[in-house]
């Protein structure tokens, strides 16, 4: 694989785009907190990133698979449309903000406002998250294997949240719902697909109040 | 505000339905307090040759958008589908764009497509497919309170994100709807956007719940901010949405310093000529909103052609006015081409006061 040395966000993204259509697999090394890396990629390409990403990693993603071996800043996968983002470490607040589709998997802790205003897609977090989980979400699924902060599901209009750990009271317009056998199967399939090891058998399901 | 037929009709409607009404509240443009000062010294060539084009895009923006006319369409409320289609059609045919709230992605196909990015409603699919992007801040909120932004540094990051995601190929407009134009516009210029959009909507324009400041009053601070940030030298454009009614209003706004102006009510009225009963200004908002049935049977193509005709007539007017002012290009207009006939208009705009013959002292330093 050819190696190119680049420094700025613009250069890194240009280098990435230059590989689209030529390579199926691309590797970036030594990322040092650059913002807006691998954003708006509308391509079937697998990108592995070593190092720490800044804000907006994989935002507006439209089909690419991004694997990050390092920490990520805020707004990871912001407004993502499709594709996958998998991170092996902790992520800053508001990951998956306004996400429309695709899958985000975090093998570490998330911050506050995970999946806020999410419209669709799946967020799977093998760790703990902060407050306002799924705030204002309209669709999609959020799964957290660890503990969550207060106010989960505040103002949610649709979608589901599954929590495996400890949780405070849910937010306004959200309610604890009864899990179905289908829910359990979906979770088990996701854990298997993304190699998430958890001993938790019972997940609390949060949805909009008044829904089944 | 004195009692008039509109207010009486409004009370009658409320008494009948028990519902609130959304009506057009005229805030007063003050445009009539400015006059055009044509030296009647024709430029070389012909009026038809006057260049009206406005290019949106900084030097670093690879994909610039060339507007063939210095105006665009907008609607301060979510319009009926037929209205949306008519406005998008007319805007595209006239070589400009329409700034509309529409959730129907099919309405954006084949037209100059403006994608919107707001903290609460990010239209991600349309951003990637759009021809230009509008980043809207503080929709009814405090300017620095955003659902996913923590101050100016974050706004800069959002602009960078949109640039990167669209490969620097789309001009980015930043719009504010709050009161402190000066600080907002300065911040927008520092964020590196291609154009700044200011409007009187938050101050009482069409779609606003309250009558407020006139359109002109939002231009003065924006222009001052442009001067202080050397925005012109950087290539940033100023777009102004407001209560513009005629080609004369457009000319005055352009002479004041706007690069392009947003039209709404004249466009709605032009479209309404295709309804069984053309609407009055105060009826437009309620009758033409998405929830109304008034435009249900409106043929969008016919309505779009009427609107195109109207926009074409504005184009001819503007060319002629600019020609009579001794200019051959719209960007040659300056505040020397207009004057204020009232003290208030001179104070708000900073143009010279007729009779006094110069700018008021407060604008000199």
Provide a descriptive summary of the structure in words.
The complex is a heterodimer of chains A (212) and B (365). With 212 residues, chain A is α/β, with parallel strands linked by helices. Chain A has one domain: Pectate Lyase C-like. Helices cover 11% and strands 27% of the residues of chain A. Chain A contains two helices and ten strands. The model of chain A has no long low-confidence stretch (mean pLDDT 92). By secondary structure, chain B is an alpha/beta fold. Chain B has one domain: Aldolase class I (TIM Barrel). Helices cover 36% and strands 13% of the residues of chain B. Chain B contains 13 helices and twelve strands. In chain B, strands 5-4-11-10-9-8-7-6 form an eight-stranded parallel β-sheet. Chain B has a two-stranded antiparallel sheet with strand order 1-12. In chain B, strands 2-3 form a two-stranded antiparallel ribbon. The longest helix of chain B has 25 residues. Chain B is globular, with a radius of gyration of 20 Å. About 2% of the residues of chain B have low confidence. Classes of the chains: A alpha/beta (212), B alpha/beta (365). Chains A and B meet through α1 of A and α3 and α4 of B.
Helix segment tally of chain A: 2
The total count of strands of chain A amounts to 10
**In angstroms, what is the radius of gyration of chain B?**
20 Å
What is the H level of CATH, i.e. the homologous superfamily of chain A? Answer: Glutamate synthase, alpha subunit, C-terminal domain
Fourth CATH level, the homologous superfamily of chain B? Aldolase class I
**Share of helical residues of chain B:** 25-40%
User: How many distinct beta strands of chain B?
Assistant: 12
**How would the global form of chain B be characterised?**
globular
User: Which band does the percent of strand residues of chain A land in?
Assistant: 25-35%
């Amino acid at each position: 694989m050819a190696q190119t040395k680049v420094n700025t966000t613009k250069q890194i993204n240009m280098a990435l785009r230059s590989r689209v259509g030529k390579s199926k697999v691309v590797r970036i090394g030594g990322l040092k907190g650059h913002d807006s890396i691998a954003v708006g990629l509308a391509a079937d390409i697998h990108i592995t990133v070593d190092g720490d990403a800044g804000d907006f990693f994989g935002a507006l993603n439209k089909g690419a698979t991004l694997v990050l071996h390092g920490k990520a800043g805020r707004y990871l996968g912001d407004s993502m449309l499709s594709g996958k983002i998998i991170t092996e470490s902790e992520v800053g607040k508001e990951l998956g903000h306004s996400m429309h589709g695709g899958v985000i998997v975090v093998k570490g802790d998330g911050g506050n406002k995970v999946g806020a205003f999410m419209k669709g897609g799946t967020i799977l977090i093998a760790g703990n998250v902060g407050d306002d989980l799924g705030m204002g979400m309209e669709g999609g699924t959020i799964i957290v294997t660890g503990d969550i902060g207060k106010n989960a599901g505040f103002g949610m209009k649709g979608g589901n949240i599954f929590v495996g750990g400890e949780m405070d009271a849910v937010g306004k317009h959200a309610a604890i719902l009864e899990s179905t056998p289908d829910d359990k199967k979906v979770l088990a399939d996701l854990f298997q697909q993304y190699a998430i090891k958890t001993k938790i058998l019972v997940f609390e399901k949060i949805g909009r109040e008044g829904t089944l | 505000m004195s009692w008039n037929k509109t207010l009486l009709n409004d009370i009658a409607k409320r008494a009948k339905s028990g519902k609130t009404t959304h009506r057009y509240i005229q805030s007063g443009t003050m445009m009539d307090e400015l006059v055009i000062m044509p030296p009647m010294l024709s430029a070389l060539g012909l009026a038809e040759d006057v260049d009206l084009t406005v290019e949106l895009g900084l030097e670093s923006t690879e994909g610039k958008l060339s507007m063939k006319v210095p105006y665009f369409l907008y609607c301060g409320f979510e319009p009926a589908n037929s209205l949306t289609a008519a406005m998008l059609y007319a805007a595209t045919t006239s070589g400009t764009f329409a700034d509309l709230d529409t959730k129907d992605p099919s309405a954006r196909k084949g037209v100059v497509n403006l994608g919107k990015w707001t903290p609460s409603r990010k239209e991600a699919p349309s951003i990637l497919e759009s021809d230009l992007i509008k980043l809207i801040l503080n929709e009814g909120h405090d300017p620095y309170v955003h659902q996913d932004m923590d101050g100016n540094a974050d706004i800069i990051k959002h602009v960078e994100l949109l640039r990167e995601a669209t490969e620097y190929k789309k001009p980015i407009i930043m719009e504010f709807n709050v009161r402190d134009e000066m600080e907002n516009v300065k911040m927008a210029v520092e964020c590196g956007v291609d154009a700044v959009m200011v409007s009187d909507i938050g101050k009482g324009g069409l779609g606003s719940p309250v009558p407020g400041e006139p359109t002109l009053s939002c231009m003065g601070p924006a222009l001052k901010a442009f001067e202080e940030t050397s925005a012109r030298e950087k290539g940033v454009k100023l777009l102004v949405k407001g209560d513009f009614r005629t080609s004369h209003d457009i000319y005055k706004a352009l002479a004041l310093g706007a690069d392009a102006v947003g039209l709404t009510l004249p466009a709605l009225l032009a479209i309404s000529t295709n309804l069984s009963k053309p609407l009055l200004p105060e009826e437009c908002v309620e009758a033409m909103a998405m929830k109304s049935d008034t435009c249900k049977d409106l043929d969008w193509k016919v309505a779009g052609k009427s609107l195109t005709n109207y926009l074409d007539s504005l184009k001819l007017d503007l060319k002629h006015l600019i020609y009579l002012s001794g200019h051959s290009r719209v960007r040659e207009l300056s505040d020397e081409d207009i004057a204020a006939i009232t003290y208030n208009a001179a104070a708000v705009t900073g143009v010279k006061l007729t009779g006094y013959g110069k700018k008021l002292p407060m604008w000199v330093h």
